[in-house]
Amino acid sequence: MALLNSYNISIKGIAACVPKDKELTKNYTLFSEDERALFIKSVGITERRVAPFEITTSDMCFCAAEKLISDLNWDKKEIGCVIFVSQSPDYLLPATSIILQHRLGLSKDTMAFDVSLGCSGYVYGLQLMAGIISGGQIKKGLLLVGDKSTLSTYYEDKSTYPLFGDAGTATAIEFDEQASSIYFNLQSDGGGEDAIKILDGAARNTVRDDTFDIKEIEPGIKRSRRHLILNGIDIFNFALKEVTPNINELFQFAGIEKDSVDYFLFHQANRLINESVRKKLKVLDIAKVPYSINLFGNTSSASIPLTMVTQLKSNLQKNNTLLLSGFGVGFSWASCLFKTGNIYCSDLIEIG
Amino acid sequence: MVSIEEFTSLLAAEFEDIDPQTITPATNYREIKNWSSMYALIIIAFVDANYDVQLNADNLKNSQTIKDIYDIVLSKQP
């Protein structure tokens, strides 16, 4: 049971960066009028940000990190760890975190590594960073999290294309002996590996003759083996089944009452899923469950910090109890629970 | 468990843009005007929230009518 707690960790600040180019659901031509209305209402996405060819996840994370370091007045020499959580790295190798260490002008004494996780990645990243910082030898770390998911979606696949937006984020984490504990519940089930998948391009199926051939899977769904597969029903059932027990277990482990939570920050994949989870948790106050999906779509691992920056911002500069929960590709799901100090949120950065 | 008639009218109310009068237990739900996979998610969420039953992809694949879904919910209810 990966129920864990970390001490002496404080989240000092968060910054998020998105491409300036928007795509509007109302302009997506594969939807009928009725389908579009239902999609906007139930999935909850009216617009998304889409990065142009030349902008990658690491570019967005770089801009977020530069802004955050400057806003917090951090001395780059003191940053001892960079973790890049993404499933859209710059290259198959080397790891993007290492490229970012150099590009950000951080010391060669910085430890840097990548983590390949999607929707659950922010919470996993926080736990890893907490484990590294809580000993006190490394005082400051940068958690860089995001994806350029639009790389992998095909316009003529209406089960994926209208869902995803691009974003990169940076979170500043510091050793702090005054900080309250952070409690985590981290889980995985590889039985769900086929529910969200890109088949070709890595070691199992490198590139085949038919890798880039576009095939019709069913009406409204065309894609190649290099594009993202998404089985909505399986994911929906996974989320309904697993997310609420994971969170309830965490409350029990932490000995914190659900009612004391100020904000429930759920991964932004689908409004219907999040509303179902909210009702199952019996959270009646909808103001406690902020959404950013309407403006940014599903931004993978960036969705939780992007929601914090765009929806909570100044409200985070108080003592709040937060519950974060990410769930999806893998399947992988994780939640964490903590009382914040002052978390500084930089203004949203737009590039491109 | 509620009656099949009540189940049908509660479910029909979830399909907001569809006239509930047109939905009966014998309705093949895939033939509802403008049916899309999003309706499948709405059915799953409705059944989960109200009856604590999870409909999987096979359940949906093997069902045609609202009554078929009702019967699956009955058989799977805790």
Provide an overview of this structure:
Helices cover 27% and strands 27% of the residues of chain A. Chain A has 8 helices and 18 strands. In chain A, the strands form 5 sheets. In chain A, strands 2, 5, 6, 7, 8, 17 and 18 form a 7-stranded mixed β-sheet that branches. A 5-stranded mixed β-sheet of chain A has the order 1-9-16-15-14, sandwiched between helices. In chain A, helix 5 (232-254) runs parallel beside helix 6. Chain A is globular and about 55 Å long. The termini of chain A are far apart. The mean pLDDT of chain A is 96. Chain B is mainly alpha-helical and 78 residues long. Chain B has one domain: ACP-like (Non-ribosomal Peptide Synthetase Peptidyl Carrier Protein, Chain A, Orthogonal Bundle), CATH 1.10.1200.10. The relative contact order of chain B is 0.20. Classes of the chains: A alpha/beta (352), B mainly alpha (78). The A-B interface holds A 32, 34-35, 37-39, 41-43, 159, 231-234, 236-237, 240-241, 270, 272, 275-276, 279-280 and B 16-17, 33-34, 36-42, 44-45, 48-49, 54-57, 60.
